[in-house]
Amino acid sequence: MSFANGGSLAELIRARQGHHVTEDMRSSDNMTKEELIASHKRRLGKRIERTYEGPSKRINYFHNDELLLLFRNICDGLEFLHSKGIMHLDLKPANVLLNWDETNDTIPRAMLSDFGSSFAGVGNPERTGQTGTMEYTSPEALYKDERGRLLKERSFKSDMWSLGMILYEMIFFSLPWQDYDNNYEELNEEILNYAGFDEQALEMAKKRRPDVPIRILELLRKLLDRDVNNRPLASEVLEEVMSTELIVEKKDKIPLIRKQKMMKIALFGITLLKLSGVGFGIALRLIDQLYREDKPEDAIVSSDIHQQVIDKGLTLILACRSPSKAQNAINQLKEYQNSKAICTVDLELVYEHCDLGTVESSVDFATRIKQKYSSLSSIICNAGAGTFTGLDWLKACQQIVTNPIQALTLPNYKLQSNGTTSADSIGWVFQTNIYGHFIIAKELESLLEKESQSSIIWMSSLEAAKCDYDIDNDFQFIKSNYSYEISKYLTEALAIGLEDHYREQNSTIHSVIVHPSVVWSSIFYDHLGWLLDLLMAISFYFARLLGSPNHLISAFLGAISTTTVLLNLDKHTGKDLRYASQCDRFGNPYVTAQDTVVQTVEEDYKGYSKKVLRKFNDLYTRIHFQSPLLQLAEKDNGKSFVLVPCPSGTGQIINAFKNDEIDVSLALTESLLAGIAKGATEFKFVGTYIESPLNWAVITGANAPYTSIKDLEGTTIGISRKGSGSEVMANVMALQKEWKNPPKFLINDNFAKLRQSVNDGSTSCFMWEWFTTLPYVKTGEVKFIGNQLTPWPSWSIVAKPSLDRSLVAQFVDNLDQAVRAFDESRTSGEAVDYVAKTFNYDKQDVQEWIKGVTYSKSHLRVVKKSVVESTLDTLVDAKVIEKNGEWDISQFVNRDIATVE
Q1: Sequential DSSP letters for 108-132
Q2: How many CB atoms lie within 10 A of CB 784?
């Protein structure tokens, strides 16, 4: 438990203004209107009184260090509450308590308090009464119904408005409201009419407080946005503040000259237990190497890249799940950096949130990186985990007695469970150790390509082994009790496959394998306890003294293979090798090139690695509808076409056409038509892929009160983006159900946030493809209350009009044959087996899905005019596109290839 010995933030602000006033700023959800007005008058009176108290006093605004640290503390507390599904609903400076820690006698630590108005955000809260203190209340919380009762449209974004008001007061020592003399109603009206911290307010703020970082003023603008959809999440605010804090501190305390655009390196898996995590060791060793005047001792050769880092500077992006752990790591790294006598490199340490265990988090991470940076030098894929359950002590004793060095190097007595899957119904170890990294690497390829040389560095292990792995029947090794070893084996195969692919494409990207050998880390700490963990470390030193080159023990030493490859990339590429950290018996480290495990096991390791890469690409797209196309790609083996994953949807597909990255695509009919109607000329329809409609599930919260679609009329529905299929189909549903009150929409960006919104009560439901939602319905995370079918064929084929007609026609003809073969295999059950194994779905679920899917019965190179026109008319009704005259079928269909019926 923490105790506050420094009063409140409100009192500190008043003290900085030169006043010594103690006031009761509390208000409650349980207050009557009269009591709230009286409370407002008391606060207003105090504000008026202090205007005339004593002589004129100088305002002592917060210095940037104070402002950022205090606000980060507040954001940290709010992010924790929101991560637990709790809304505070009464954020204000009076509810921010301060504590002076013994270790910090210049800036107090801020803590949130007074949770009397807090609400666990599941289901729908009662919509009556006041929430919080008037001056800090969001406009949507003050809306009234036709009877004059407060609707109290509160959500997590309401807290973000209040957080913005706190930041406003911390910057300006005032609020944007006028001092209405005892008039509660006028203040209410001013809040409702407040335009937000708009461009005009931003420009005035720059002149009023030119010393405040522009990023903080921009953040304030986002927090005080009238549109709740535009307000950031608490986690996003925390990341922005931490990033700004680091930049400000570097400017204030470490005056460096940035000579050119800095090199950026993304590093995963920062761990601080015993400061021994491999990710932390890599970061520490990079700083150690880059902050020397002399050439790094552990550089095998002179490195051009090393010199570039010295010339340009370095941005090191630390990616992990916990903001607090990341900040602790950054603090430790900065202390180490500052301990160096001579500073030769402009170094910036940045934290970005990333949970490799979910696809959404991996994609979100990559999206943020693309928004913030124009290029990327390297991605270091070092995060790793296992489903360890304990030790087989009998086997441990046997191996220690018969071969003690091997027992401490390649133990055969670690126990692992099987069957563990992630929230995405993907093998958990598979996703955490490999697939999450792969998604990010694929998403960031465009940034890596901007550098003259860039790298994806994959961390393998001494324990990498094939064991009982069956790539065809258990690709994600969910059934295996050796998932950790297999994950490292598959990592090597994937790295080789990617390197071959990049060389074929003449890419500037290189895929390289490293491993740290034996490092004393926290991965098995929970199963050993502190005593056995310590004894394990001592035994490692014993093995090293006996001559084992593999027991580096320290993560700092184990990182030598990674940093050496990173800073000498030109000497460590184009070879199917893995680079291992090793040392002599005195702990002096060096790097050794070794054959990969895949090379020694697989007779045709190149072909095997290519197959692994293809299966990862198939999973990356994760579209079960594309099964015939995937089978055709396996048969073609890259001779006439290659697949380019576009997992972000139609927007990414259209951009890929515009950027000349793809020639042909299979995608949702309505989205492709909308793209052309809005002006896209880079593609036209050349065929119909799936004739059956798409089955959209209507999903609501697990504990939400809605039991049928009719209950949703007039409510707020979650959508992924404006004009998306989820919005189009919600409007279609409203039209077909003849709702008198049209739905309102709240943009939630992605599938994960849509699921969150129905459970925290900010939306009533969302619509998504039925089969994709099924795993989440089965686990009870969300609830299915109905479905809606598209009134058009769901999938179509488009191609660049400039592409050679014979090439497109041949591709579509070959795909037509693949579709017929897939349809024929339904009877034998082979089609079901293929989908289940490729995408890790339950066979019974696949059987149900496949019953409702009808691929084009006629030849694929047929497009029906009525389908195009009726779909476009529906998109007009749904306000996705506008109609200007009659539809010209030639604008949408390439008649040279497709037959229009």
Answers
A1: PEEEE---TT-EE-SS-----S--S
A2: 15
553-581 pLDDT, tens digit per residue, is 888 899 999 988 888 887 766 678 999 99
Q: Which two tokens stand for residue 569?
A: 């990339």
Rounded to the nearest 5°, which phi and psi values hold at 133? -100, 135
Helices (H) and strands (E) in the chain, counts: 34, 26
Q: Is 804 helix (H, G, I), strand (E, B) or coil?
A: coil
263-386+427-525+549-606 belongs to which homologous superfamily? NAD(P)-binding Rossmann-like Domain (3.40.50.720)
For CATH 3.40.190.10, the residue range(s) in the chain are 624-692+795-900, 695-789
Please count the other Cβ atoms lying within 10 Å of the Cβ belonging to residue 722. Answer: 11
Q: Which residue reads 């804090």 in tokens?
A: 245
501 Cβ partners below 8 Å, 6+ apart?
507, 613
Phi/psi at 805 (5° precision): -60, -40
Domain 624-692+795-900 has CATH 3.60.40.10: no
Q: Which residues contact 810 (CB under 8 A, 6 or more apart)?
A: 640
Residue the block writes with tokens 């989820």: 726
Q: Counting Cβ atoms within 10 Å, is residue 203 exposed (0-12), middle (13-18) or buried (19+)? A: exposed
DSSP H helices in 354-482: 359-372, 393-402, 404-407, 428-430, 436-443, 445-448
User: Residues 48, 51, 56, CA angle at the centre, nearest 5°?
Assistant: 175
Beta bridge partners of 590: 582
What number of other Cβ atoms are within 10 A of residue 761's Cβ?
A: 23
Side by side, which strands form the sheet with 744-747? 744-747, 716-719, 765-769, 695-701, 782-789
pLDDT tens, residue by residue, 668-720:
898 899 889 988 999 999 999 999 988 899 999 999 999 999 999 999 999 88
Query: How far is the C-alpha of 399 from the C-alpha of 392, rounded, in Å?
Result: 11
Question: Can you give the pTM of this predicted structure?
Answer: 0.60
Helix residue ranges, H only, 546-585: 555-558, 560-567
The Cα-based distances of 333 to 284, 286, 292, 338, 349 in angstroms read: 6, 10, 15, 9, 9
* Count of C-beta atoms within a 10 Å radius of residue 151: 13
Architecture of domain 695-789: 3-Layer(aba) Sandwich (3.40)
